[in-house]
Give the backbone structure.
Amino acid sequence: MGFNEFISKLFGNKASRDMKEIQPWVEKVKAVYPEISKLTNDELRAKTEELKKFIKDSAAEENKKIEELKATIESTDLEKRETIFSQIDKLEKEVLEKYEKALSEVLPTAFSIVKDTARRLSENEELEVTASDFDRELAAQGRDFVRIEGDKAIWKNHWKAGGNEMTWNMVHYDVQLFGGVVLHQGKIAEMATGEGKTLVATLPVFLNALTGNGVHVVTVNDYLAKRDSEWMGPLYMFHGLSVDCIDKHQPNSEARRRAYMADITFGTNNEFGFDYLRDNMAVSPKDLVQRKHNYAIVDEVDSVLIDDARTPLIISGPVPKGDQQLFEVLRPLVERLVEAQRKLATQYLADAKRLIASDKKEDQEAGFLALFRSHKALPKNKPLIKFLSEPGIKAGMLKTEEIYMEQNNKRMPEAVEPLYFVIDEKLKSVDLTDKGVDLITGNSQDPTLFVLPDIAAQLSELENQKGLSDEERLAKKDELMTNYAIKAERVHTINQLLKAYTMFEKDTDYVVMDGQVKIVDEQTGRIMDGRRWSDGLHQAVEAKEGVKVEAATQTFATITLQNYFRMYHKLSGMTGTAETEAGEFWDIYKLDVVVIPTNRPIARIDMNDRVYKTKREKYKAVIEEIEKMVQAGRPVLVGTTSVEISEMLSKMLTLRKIEHNVLNAKLHQKEAEIVAKAGQSSTVTIATNMAGRGTDIKLGDGVTELGGLKIIGTERHESRRIDNQLRGRSGRQGDPGESQFFISLEDDLMRLFGSEKLLGMFNALGVPEGEQIQHKMLTSAIEKAQKKIEGNNFGIRKNLLEYDQVMNDQREIIYAERLRVLNGESMRDVIYKMITDRVENTVDTCISPDLPAEEWDINELNQLLIPIIPLQQVTPEQAKEYKDQKKLKHALKEQAVKLYEEKEAEFPEPEAVRELERVILLKVIDRKWMDHIDDMDQLRQGIGLQAYGQRDPLVEYKMSGYDMFEEMINSIQEDTVRLLFHVRVEQKVEREQVAKVTGTNKDETAQGVPKKRAAAKVYPNDPCPCGSGKKYKQCCGRKA
């Protein structure tokens, strides 16, 4: 017995401990259930109202105090308001705690109510109850599951869901009660395929909806959101709980607002996130749709909170001249560059094969250098990949790479000098070489056409030039900056086009449909409608494919799903595969993963991997295995990692005249139909690994006796979770089945991580072509490699989270302040504080408290302060009267406040001034925040270079981000004060968005991605580029 087995036997493993903790709750439900089942239909519904009242009363005292405190805000001084807000926040947390305690008390009864409602609907075609106002409202809306007859409401047990007529036939069994308890506790319930996750969710959804604070049920696509809201809706509505789906309504509409006000709201992860962003761009309280984030259950939680977690949701709009881009202009140059590189890579590969076969050591060394150059030129070249799979070849190339990487890549330029550009496959980067620059520059009059100048050196040289007037110096500076911006944009466009041509493959990474480039999700194979690659990469791919290149845009608002879902008071999730990512769920979301036992034991057999030497041998074996299964009458599901492989296998099956269905990005609309047929006898379905999630594969007649569904994986994924999802398509509800992966040493996972040892094993055993190795040790070795990669990927994601958190903290501050302005709070005290702060900061900037009045720089003070606050100029005589800095500050503050009071008096109504303050403040906040998002993005892209200076990039990012945020706040105050003092009374005051939204990065109207800043951003605390030695904000930045 191993140590781990001994410890598990002594203390029990996590799964058994989890079940031991939940068992008492399930026993309580089972104890209460008999009493609930005896109630009449009306008594059952009355019980729900009783529970609602009990929960509400549990925090009645705290809610009353909150309302009393809110009523005192307007009459309280600005300095004391923060105390009230803190008291309200504390009380609201106490309310939630009281509600949670009350929910735990009523859990057995609530779960029993849901279960018995399900039983009654499954056993009766109709249920008769005394009609309530809610029943009548539903019937008036034309709902097909309820009708009114006099004072009675008749509820049917059949209705339409997802476009199909369905009859209710489900009742919760015990293991589903376990799942319900786990979800209510704010954990992740891992349940196998076919265990009824959708039904399980009805238990905690119903329970938590009783608070009236709202429950969000989150799905991965709009079909599931709409279907589940219609399928499960009547179960909740029978008890007077309102149900809606946000994906059925247009953004920013009254209908969507009503959907959020429902007790239970279904929707897709993207739309929940986008609505949060839209709310924080709203210019009126009536435009807000969401309420506080209370409780969410995320379906397919691993897909949402792991795979898509770091992908930003972006709301964007046009930028000036955003349609004037260089992608189509520079495309012919890049095509010439790529073609020249392809010829070079092919020649190097041919030379490598010839030289490595030589007996001379010098020739072999030259051969491996040629091979390394071919790899750096085009790493995805198929002949190259095949050659690298031969014995000792990859090891020899890696040794050559190590030689040139010694001493911090000292000799690497020597190795890559003959290439036109260099590709780093792991870093996904492409860098142009001097030879490449020469090729695309050609006979141009400007040899530096694609070379970035040293802008800092040029500006320094300009500052040191003598004999130039200020106007001439400024004009030359503008000329230098403009030239730099033009060249930066040109070089950036070339780099993105090179990536598009060499690293992104059509029908694998994207598809072209209806004249648009659409990204294919590498995990699911689904088309991600509306999502676009950032930084101009999407436009580069559009230019490559010859479709319309969309205009560049600016980001108005952005958030990652990871940060959005962490805002909920309570979060839970369900999926079939989360255990392998349990560490990440806990570290990032504090979500525990609990594995729920299956209702019936899993009968699926997971067979050892079959490993082949080449892809050709592997695919031949896959086709033969499919043919064998079809002849035996068994259905087969073939899982691939890309659309390209799916289509290749489809062609091979067609040649053998084997009927089959292909489920991929091009056929995603037929997904439900294809998956529904996948369990029929002799049916072959080819799908990308995760396609068809949310739809069960049910076995046809006679298939169980033949051995069930056969799963064939054509490649191992980097993540075991994705492989397990594929396996989980078979073995539903105790059905028999098999799963097996077919692997070759040329697969990406094997090629990048550890194929050398396996290759040595093949050669040592003398395995002939076409033969395979199959052993448990081999399967375990592959899974160990996957664990290492998972750990590495988690480290990368966690590091990204720390960067995201900087922006997230700033976003929360800005959005909280913006909401206060939006909700109509009086800004008068805030504005007065801004005015006095501007005076104080300006005086501090210009005049040191230690200087005597005779040495004060009065001219600078007037130049900085008067354009913001139109005071009378301070004269040297007045300065002498004030004597010290404190008196000067006091006098100027009094004058500024008096001046603003005079401005207020120009308005006929005091509320008109207050509305003006809110309108201007909203506009300034939005404009500055948009610029800040862009600035932070630019900072993040370049912060990695800090590592070369022995500095921690994350620490530098946090410090610079803090400085930039502080500068933005100062800029908001300055612009707000300036606009308020210079506004004319006759102007009509209206709230409007500062920029027109043209789309999101995940909907049908997306028009582009954030445009990359052409020139390098200079931050307030950076040394001034002019070479003065001062900080930018104290030099040229003051004039900017």
User: Anything to note?
Assistant: The CA atoms of residues 314 and 558 lie 5 Å apart. The radius of gyration is 33 Å. Residues 1003-1016 have pLDDT under 50 and may be disordered. The first strand starts at residue 126 and ends at 130.
